[in-house]
Design goal:
The protein is mostly beta strands. Helices cover about 5% and strands about 35% of the residues. The strands form six sheets. Strands 1, 2, 3, 4, 6 and 9 form a six-stranded mixed sheet that branches. Strands 21-20-23-28-25-26 form a six-stranded mixed sheet, with no helix packed on it. Strands 5-11-10-7-8 form a five-stranded mixed sheet, with no helix packed on it. The longest helix has 16 residues, at about 5-20.
Length: about 475
């Protein structure tokens, strides 16, 4: 994957995250006059695109500005950003049929176009912005990029007229190997913004016996901009808290299922050796249990709810990471992060995740995420100093999809995966590019960044990068040119 491509992708996601997931925002009046061609069928380049974008991230669909030249001609503006290879947004909504000014901003590195069903074509070279007036029919319309290969790769979209029957998606929702899917669940523009999950790994707990209270909650969480689910948690967050100890420690967890919960729950620490039908038993709302274990083996371990169906309890947010260090501890480094990869199979807005979707033999999650929220570290990168030593504890909790954890532009000089150890400075100077983690496998990776800049963190199973499995490591000020 070309680095420019992934950074363009990252930029696109940042724009969406700061803008509107549904492609429609109220109250952001456009300042650009709608003085485009009169219902032209070919888009025209905007003379100076640098004067346009100031408000683009917040104005995907805007009412036509009142009292400005040409404003009577159109009902509003539709802004579509083009990337290599996708549109943002893919699906737009308007209140009523009629003429709209469509502005196509090609942020990609190659030529793209927006071709509507009625033949209207807006073609833009890399970096160019073009406009045309398009008549949106009452039944809505679809659009695509006519450059060979681009539409099949995902450059397709829809304009839906509110109140009309939804436009049939131009992209095939079953095309799992293709573009990032627009989920069948409609985005909710009123969903609260996601809360960024702190990626910094906590310090190891002091002492040798640890009493930990873990309360399981059932609550709403925004898992991606515009998508809110009724999740089940350990410690009120998804993922649950990182528990960091050392070999030989005793961990005494008091697990609480509050009376106001609806569901029985349980906990299963992979770092423990206990009887399944004792400590791992389910407890009803209002009950609690004590789960005591000793840290016999070092590693990056999963914990999760095992209440049947465990698939649903994991898919709905009940998982977390245990770090067990060797008795002598880990060597100090400059930065430590904890990253948990997981999948979301969206249920209806405000409800629990869709178990039937999660049960599919070929899993097709709506989102694959790091630390619970899609793309959250694109907006809030993991910040490090250039050349500093970085350690990442990484865990794939699935429930069903493998991870190939990779950080673009870096090489892991140290990997400790499921007890297998690649040591920095080994004879032959072997290194590692990606760590394969099946569900419930964990690793420690260590790296340094070579220069100031951005280093995308992905699963190299790349169909999932567009579904939320993207973050950024930012070295220095993130700019390699200064
Ligand atoms: Cu549970």
């Amino acid at each position: 994957m070309h680095r420019g491509t992934i950074l363009a992708l990252a930029t696109g996601i940042a724009l969406v995250a700061t803008g509107c997931a549904s492609g429609r925002l109220p109250g952001s009046a456009a300042t650009h006059p709608a003085n485009g061609p009169d219902h032209a069928s070919i888009g025209v380049a905007v003379a100076d695109p640098t004067t346009q974008p100031a408000q683009l991230p917040t104005a995907e669909v805007s009412p036509a500005p009142a009292g400005q030249p040409g404003s009577a001609e159109v009902l509003g503006e539709l802004v579509i950003h083009g990337y290599d290879i996708r549109y943002e947004p893919m699906d737009l909504t308007v209140d009523q049929p009629g003429p709209y000014l469509v502005r196509f901003i090609n942020e990609g590195a190659i030529i793209h176009d927006v071709t509507f069903e009625d033949g209207t074509l807006l073609s833009a070279e890399a970096g160019e912005t073009v406009e045309a007036v398009v008549d949106i029919p009452a039944g809505g319309t679809t659009f695509l990029c006519s450059i060979p290969g681009h539409a099949p790769a995902g450059m397709v979209g829809t304009v839906t007229v509110t109140g009309a029957a939804p436009t049939e998606p131009a992209h095939d929702p079953d095309d799992h190997g293709g573009p990032p899917p627009e989920t069948a669940v409609a985005a909710d523009p009123n969903a609260p913004a996601p809360v960024t999950h702190d990626p910094i790994a906590p310090a190891r707990l002091e002492g040798e016996v640890h009493d930990i209270e873990l309360v399981m909650t059932e609550r709403l969480m925004t898992v991606a901009p515009g998508y809110q689910q009724l999740v089940w948690t350990f410690g009120d967050t998804v993922p649950g808290p990182v528990i960091r100890v050392k070999v030989g420690d005793t961990i005494r967890v008091t697990l609480k299922n509050p009376a106001e919960n609806q569901m029985p729950h349980s906990i299963d620490f992979h770092s423990s050796q206990v009887a399944w039908n004792d400590e791992m038993r389910s407890i009803a709302p209002g009950e609690e249990l004590v789960y005591e274990w000793t840290a016999d083996y070092a590693g990056v371990w999963m914990y999760h709810c095992g209440t049947a169906p465990a698939l649903h309890h994991i898919a709905n947010g009940m998982y977390g990471m245990v770090i067990v260090e060797p008795k002598e501890g880990l060597a100090p480094v400059d930065h430590e992060f904890a990253v948990v990869q997981s999948e979301w199979y969206l249920g209806p807005q405000g409800q629990v995740t869709d178990l039937a979707k999660a049960m599919e033999a070929a899993p097709a999650p709506d989102f694959v995420v790091f630390n619970g929220v899609a793309n959250q570290y694109v907006d809030a990168p993991l910040a490090v100093e250039t050349g500093s030593r970085v350690r990442i504890f990484v865990l794939n909790v699935g429930p069903s999809v493998d991870s190939s954890f990779h950080i673009v532009g870096t090489i892991f000089d140290t990997v400790i995966k499921e007890g297998v150890h690649l040591v920095r400075g080994n004879e032959g100077n072997w290194g590692s590019q990606a760590v394969d983690l099946a569900p419930a496998q964990g690793a420690i990776v260590e790296l340094t960044t070579a220069e100031d800049g951005l280093y995308p963190m992905v699963t190299h199973a790349f169909n999932f990068v567009g579904r939320g499995a993207l973050g950024l490591l930012q070295a220095g000020d993130g700019d390699p040119t200064n």
